[in-house]
Each structure stands twice: as C-alpha cells, then as structure tokens.
Amino acid sequence: MADILTQVQDCLDQLLNQMHATLYYTNTSCPPSAIEGQPSLGTSITQQTQDLTQNSSTQRASEAAANTQTTDPSLPEIPHPAPPEEFIRTLHELSRDLVLKEQQIELLISRLPGIGISEKEQIARMQGLERELEAIEEEREEAVREKEELVKVLEGKILGVGALGW
C-alpha cells in the first residue's frame, strides 16, 4: 500500500508541474486577440514605428535602448507569441498529457486496498487477519520451545559422547 501511495504522491507532483508548465506556456505563447473597440496591436506598433521614423533622435535613442535590452542579461526576456496553429497544436498536446496523468492517478487510487469495501467489511477482515496472526504467533512460539528442547537433548548427547572419552 505504501508503494501505491508513494506513486500517487509522485503523480500528483508531476501533474502539478505539468499544470504549471501549461499555464506558463498559455500565458507566454498565446497569440494576442483583438479587443472590440480597441486599436489592434499591429496598428499601434505600426503607428509607433512611423512616429519614430519622423523623429531621428528619438529613433537613435530607441535603438540604443533596444541594443541594451538584447545585451543586458539582467533584463527579463520578452515572450513572443506562438503562431496560432502551433499554439493550438501545442495546447492540445499539453491537454492530452494532463488528461493522461489524471487517468494514471485514478488508476493508482482504484488499486488502493479498501476501495469499494464498506467499513464493516474492512473491520471484519482486519479482525480475521488479527486472529490469523495470533495463531501463527502461537505456532512460532511452539516451534521455538521445541527447538530449545531439541538443542538441550543434542547438548546432552554431545556431552555424553565427550564423557566416554572419544
């Protein structure tokens, strides 16, 4: 039972890690969607690019900042959205992995002893096993007593042979 419990715990840890990775991927790789009534991201970027082209000093400053961003390892990496087809394909794969891990956990749980057995049946089984254990313990104690008697008889025989002077 402890082995199954350990496997369940390991699978739960793996499931949580998979969920975290899936949420991270979704958060960082989801392509942007248009919000009704708001300018699209593409229009905003195009407009900003045009503004920068008109003002050369601003353009040089932004280029310097861009160079600093690419060379400075202390700055966080800006996530790039995945193409929609790749994002959907990867999302389906991650979802399938989550479902498989959850099914593996369910299978392990179904193999735990006591699942599907009432409390009264479990108590009766434990009492039966306890009686069996007591009977086996009595047999063991009897075997130990018999062994001790046989050792005494054997010691007596050995000492008797030694007394004859061999």
UniProtKB/TrEMBL annotation:
Cellular compartments annotated: Nucleus
Main subcellular location: nucleus
Gene Ontology cellular-component terms listed: mediator complex
Domain of life: Eukaryota
An example Gene Ontology biological process: regulation of transcription by RNA polymerase II
Coiled coil: 119-153
Keywords: Activator, Coiled coil, Nucleus, Transcription, Transcription regulation
Compositional bias per record (Polar residues), positions renumbered to this chain: 48-73
Region annotated Disordered, chain positions: 48-84
Gene Ontology molecular function terms on file: transcription coregulator activity
Signal peptide: none
PANTHER family: MEDIATOR OF RNA POLYMERASE II TRANSCRIPTION SUBUNIT 21, RNA POLYMERASE II HOLOENZYME COMPONENT SRB7
Complex and partners: Component of the Mediator complex.
Family named by the database record: Belongs to the Mediator complex subunit 21 family.
Function as written in the Swiss-Prot or TrEMBL entry: Component of the Mediator complex, a coactivator involved in the regulated transcription of nearly all RNA polymerase II-dependent genes. Mediator functions as a bridge to convey information from gene-specific regulatory proteins to the basal RNA polymerase II transcription machinery. Mediator is recruited to promoters by direct interactions with regulatory proteins and serves as a scaffold for the assembly of a functional preinitiation complex with RNA polymerase II and the general transcription factors.
Protein name (Swiss-Prot/TrEMBL): Mediator of RNA polymerase II transcription subunit 21
Protein source organism: Delitschia confertaspora ATCC 74209
Taxonomic lineage: Eukaryota, Fungi, Dikarya, Ascomycota, Pezizomycotina
